[in-house]
Amino acid sequence: MSDVYDLHIDTDVTVQLSDCDREDAQAVFGVLDAVYRLEDMTTSAPQAATGPSPTVWTATFDTAGGEHKEVSPARLSAMVGVTLTGGYHAVDEVEKVLATGFDVQSRHTVSGDQETEARLLLASR
Question: Confidence band (pLDDT; 50, 70, 90) for 50?
Fold first, then answer.
C-alpha cells in the first residue's frame, strides 16, 4: 500500500444523502465543499431523479484538503438524512462543519476498528 493511500484512509469521508431533492443535496454539499476538497462525486452535480425509486446522493470529501472557509447556515426545503463514513476524527470534523450550517440530530453511530459510520438528520436552522 502507498503512503498516499494510507493518509487518505484517515481523512476521506463519504457523505451519502437520502430522501432529498437536488437543491437540498446541493446545499449540503455546498457547505462541505466550502471547507473540504471534493474527492469524488457520483455525478458532477446532483441531477433530478426520474421514476419512483429513492435517490441517494454520494460524495467523498478530503478533510485534510480544501480552503476551510467560514460556513454560513444553508436553507433546506425538508429534513435530509445523512450517512457519514470514514475515520473517527474525519467523521467528527465533518459532523462539526455540518452543525455550523444546519440543525443536526444524531440518529445512530456504528463503530469499527478503523472507521465509523454516523447517521444524521439535517434541518434548516
Answer: low
Hey, what's the cell of 89? 476524527
Phi/psi at 108 (5° precision) = -170, 145
β-strand 56-62 against 103-111: which pairing, if any? unpaired
Other CB atoms within a 10 A radius of the CB of residue 75 amount to 11
Q: With left for phi above 0 and alpha for psi between -120 and 50, is residue 2 left, alpha or beta?
A: beta
- Asked whether 41 and 89 are in contact (CB, 8 A), the reply is no
Query: Are 89 and 114 contacting, i.e. CB atoms less than 8 angstroms apart?
Result: no
For 84-111, the pLDDT digits (tens) are 999 999 999 999 999 999 999 988 888 8
Q: What is the pLDDT of residue 41?
A: 66
Burial class (CB in 10 A: 0-12, 13-18, 19+), 12: buried
